[in-house]
Amino acid sequence: MTTEEKSTWIVAAATVFIFGWYTIKILVDAATTPISEIQYQDLLVVMIGVFVGLIIVGEIALAVITRKIDDSDERDRKINRFGEYIGGYVLGTGLLVVLGLAMAETEYFWIAHASVGVLVLAELVTAVTKIVVYRRGF
Predict the structure, then answer these.
(1) What ranges do the domains of the chain cover?
(2) Residue 98, burial from CB neighbour count under 10 angstroms (0-12, 13-18, 19+)
(3) What's the predicted TM-score (pTM) here?
(4) How many whole angstroms separate alpha carbon 83 and alpha carbon 122?
């Protein structure tokens, strides 16, 4: 397993863990509080900061454990480009949905969470695409 593939696994795991936790937290709050009264803004900012921090710590740990600066080759670059390409389509399509919500003047709660959901979905599609290509090839 190359360092690039391990890095992809770190991003995928952090995405599932952090955003899964956030989703559960919001769903629990929504069970007892009306959607319009849920205070999600601070939690959302903290969650994004924790997500970025977790990826940084994971990448540093990976660099220390593998002791390799850069072992990527042409195959890694092609896989990265292909994964980002597919994820970009998901992101672009999803943002059209978010734009539609904004144009329909939907509550900020739904627009914010649709935006985050689209970003998470695009990141997961990118990571899964890369992992599948690493495992099965083009």
Answers:
(1) 3-136
(2) buried
(3) 0.84
(4) 10
